[in-house]
Amino acid sequence: MTDEKDRAPEQLVPLDQNSEDAVEDADASAVVDPDRFGRVARGAVAAVAPDAVPGEGKSRHPRRAVIALVLVVALVGCVVAAATYGAELWGGKSVPYVVGISQEAAGSKIRGKGLAVKVATVASDDPVGTVVRTSPAAGTRARVGSTVTVYVARARVVPKVSGLQLGEAKKALRESGAKNFSIAYVASGAADGSVVATEPAEGATFQASDTITIKVARPYTVPYVVGKTEEDARAAVAEAGLVASVTYVNSDEAAQTVVAADPAPGTTIEKGATVTLQVSAPYPSDYHLLREYFDYKTHVTEFLKGEGFRLSSSSTGDGGVARVLYTSADKGNVTVTDTPFSHSFPKGSGTEDVLASGAPLPGIRLDFASADLPENAATPDESTVRQLADLCGFTGMSQTLTQDQAVVPSNLRKSSARFLCAYGEMGDYCWSVLVVREADRTRAAATCAPKSLYDAYDLGKFNNSVCDMIACVDVYG
């Protein structure tokens, strides 16, 4: 057994607080195992918990309180600053929103903020006298006593552009707010290409969305009128600053169509010069063609005079309708009347061309010359009336009537006259051809009128037949 004093003495080393072998439980006290050592080793040091570090808890709490106090004071300062700024107690005054109100009302609101007002006008589509904008803009902070410019609407006005070239005129109009243009070239003695007028006229007010028509000068030139109607051609020549003269010519073109012009279209001439228009004759193909008279009624008198007829009587009847008698030595008589079924005509004393003046043509009658009558006219049959119907250009024959078939009303007195009447319809028109043998005389007549002419008569007395009415009134009336 080894002597106790021969043993090497054990070394007791204090535990470092930062050592991995230090006690993990900071709240526990270090204990020396008495079974092992029997006594506390000299020099051993007990582990101390972190909270037990001298002076550490006392130094942290006051520092946190100071930081919190500083933050609260800063927040309160910001709130107070924002509130006082919003209340305009400092930092100037906000320019009020005044767009759309009157100049007077806007000035009152702005001056109420302690700001000065300056007024300027600007062309605008807004109501005249109302505010369009401000400078500075609404909501801007401005120093008390500083000036706010108020822009007030005034009407847009067409500027003076006469005499300018087209490009210059457009520029001036755009500067006035115009956006839309149309160009119209007009005959003028002004310089070719210069502006002679605008529509609306200079000085007139307009909206930016309006179209401004710019009228530009061009030399006086014969317009292109060949193929136009006489009426349209006359209007075009007049618009070109020229005078139209019309000559009617025979042509295969439609009636009243311009077939030529002299000077030729496109020719440059002086203002007020005469342009002769050659127009396809607006006349019936033949004076027998009664249906065509309704297509050329304003030219009937002119046409018949050219055919050798004389205007013997001219007047107007009920409703202003024309009542005109044309007579001739060898072509029979033509009557414009509202009673074409009657062979009697109330002559007037007038000789004015009422048809040319626009009086309506209600119906027409041709009393044939003896030279037009067929050889068998004294004993007429269907071939007789068909021959005369063909001469007048009538088609669509639907009825014939003799004196033996006619229903004569009680107010008419039947005579010994013998007749044959034919009736037909062409669209909205109806026609008749009547051949009458009275004693030793034969006569014949043709009529044409709108079917509506007979709507005003009581056809019940005539077996509800227009043919009966025409024959009975003509022969027995």
From TrEMBL:
Ranges of residues in domain PASTA: 92-154, 216-281
Pfam families named among the record's database cross-references: PASTA
Region (Disordered): 1-24
Stretches of the chain forming a coiled coil according to its record: none
InterPro entries to which the protein is assigned, alphabetical: PASTA_dom (IPR005543)
Keywords in alphabetical order: Membrane, Transmembrane, Transmembrane helix
Membrane-spanning parts: 66-87
SMART domains tied to this protein: PASTA
Protein name: PASTA domain, binds beta-lactams
